[in-house]
Amino acid sequence: MDQVLQAANSLPLWIIAIVVVTIPILQAVIFSRFAAKTAPAVGMTRSEVKSAFRTGLISSIGPSLGILIIAVSLLTILGGPITLMRIGIMGSAAYELTAANIGAKAFGVTLGGEGFDVTGFTVAVWTMCIGGLGWLLVAALFTKPLGKVQKKVTKRNTKIATIVSSAALVGAFGFFAAEHAVAGTVSLFVTAASALTMIIMMIAAKKFQMNWMREWSLGAALVIGMSAGYIATII
Questions:
Q1: To bridge 79 with a disulfide, which of 9, 22, 106, 229 should be the other Cys (CB 3.0-4.6 Å)?
Q2: pLDDT tens string for the chain (235 positions)?
Q3: Same-domain status, 166 and 224
Q4: Which range marks the domain in which residue 88 is found?
């Protein structure tokens, strides 16, 4: 395992990882500046733009904590560069851990266990990288065609695009929530507590015109959900 970590934390891998992670950071900066400049053209005020950026920043805290926990476990097995590169690009901690396990099993060993050598490490990393190509290819191949379809649909009926996009979001998040809720009693308790927190805060924000509550609703739901899960495990 010492040889694996020595190879995993080598200078060439650190250089590659830093270059790869720099790309999405630059993209985020460029897109943020572009969004801020374009906002007046779509009728957004400066305060609304600041509110949107603040909401995005707050909303990213909760998911980042979950990723951080998985990242710590990957660090001890796959080293810093690969963990930084994979988590920094894909951001799906659950996928990265699953893919690494699949790659190690395909090699005939347990991830980080006996027999997990440099070759097993290489297989695990290749599994993670190749498996993640799906997201990148779909985004590269279908983003522009889907944009054209959206424009055609919007020209005919502006409400249809809004309904379809809203339904897609509700369906996606509903699927993930339902999948988590049926995983067990604790998971159901966490889902219910988070959902109830979000509903209460959104209703209160609308009733009392407290926009800051909308921005903090997701973060509060995540914290209360995690707290509820911890309480459920010790009851």
A1: 9
A2: 678 888 888 999 999 989 988 988 898 899 888 988 888 887 888 888 888 888 788 777 766 766 776 677 778 888 888 888 887 776 666 677 788 888 888 888 888 888 888 898 899 889 988 888 887 888 888 888 887 877 777 777 777 777 877 888 888 878 878 887 888 888 888 889 989 998 998 899 888 887 777 767 777 887 888 888 889 888 7
A3: yes
A4: 2-131
Instruction: Verify that 193 and 80 share a domain, yes or no.
Output: no
The label of the residue with tokens 């407290």 reads: 210
> Could you tell me if residue 16 is inside a domain?
yes
- Other Cβ atoms within 10 Å of 190 Cβ, number: 24
Q: Tell me, yes or no, whether 96 lies in a domain.
A: yes
Q: Report the predicted TM-score, pTM, of the whole model to 2 decimal places.
A: 0.60
Token couple for 103: 């790659």
Which of 108, 131, 154 is the endpoint of a domain?
131
Residue 100: count of CB within 10 angstroms of its CB? 25
CB 4 within 8 A of CB 119: no
First and final C-alpha spacing in the chain: 39
Classify residue 100: in a domain, yes or no. Answer: yes
CA distances (Å), origin 8, targets 68, 76, 110, 122: 19, 10, 17, 9
The verdict on 31 and 86 lying in the same domain is yes
- List own/partner pairs for 92-96 with CB under 8 A and 24 or more apart: 93/66, 93/67, 93/69, 94/70, 95/131, 95/132, 96/70, 96/128
Nearest C-alpha neighbor of 212 from the set 17, 8, 29, 55:
55
Cα four-point dihedral sign 83, 85, 88, 90:
negative
